Amino acid sequence: MSDIRGDLDADLANTQACGLDSLIQHFIYLVLDPGFPEKIKLDELQAEIELLEEELQSLEQDNTPEVSLPGDTTAGEQASIPSQSRLDKLYKERHEIQSGMYANRLEAVLPICNDPTVYKHLKN
């Protein structure tokens, strides 16, 4: 029980405010099977987002004019500074996938939630 308490304390210490939809979207992501196509895509997007965020942060601190991006250039070539617009596209793509998964699951449970028998059972 103390292990669980410790994990909860750590999670609560690192929390930030968010809306219910965001919370549910994150929960859906957490319970997805690792081989689920949307989870794989979200993991890839997140890795790329984190890489670009780190590079942009490093560039802001160092004022470096150019940076080499893995997979985007051949050896020795310099790529353009990763732009905020690329990050914005990745954020948008991630949001669209998360929103789609949320909408699909909500649509699947609404008939159950709206069933008069279920409602009557829950009310009693």
Question: What is shown here, in short?
Answer:
The protein is mainly α and 124 residues long. Helices cover 71% and strands 0% of the residues. It has one domain (34-123).
Structure write-up:
The protein has one domain. 71% of the residues lie in helices and 0% in strands. It has helices spanning 2-13, 20-31, 37-62, 84-113, 116-123. The protein is extended.
List the helices and strands and how they pair.
Elements: H1 2-13, H2 20-31, H3 37-62, H4 84-113, H5 116-123
Helix pairs in contact: 2-4, 3-4
Rg of Cα set: 21 Å
Please tell me what the overall shape is.
extended
Structural class: mainly alpha
- Count of individual helical segments: 5
Order of helices and strands: HHHHH
Tell me the number of strands: 0
Q: Please, what is the average pLDDT?
A: 81
Low-confidence stretches: 74-80
Largest sheet: none
Determine the N-to-C terminus distance.
Answer: 33 Å
Helix content: over 70%
SS strand fraction: under 5%
Q: How many structural domains are formed by the residues?
A: 1
Features:
mainly alpha, about 120 residues
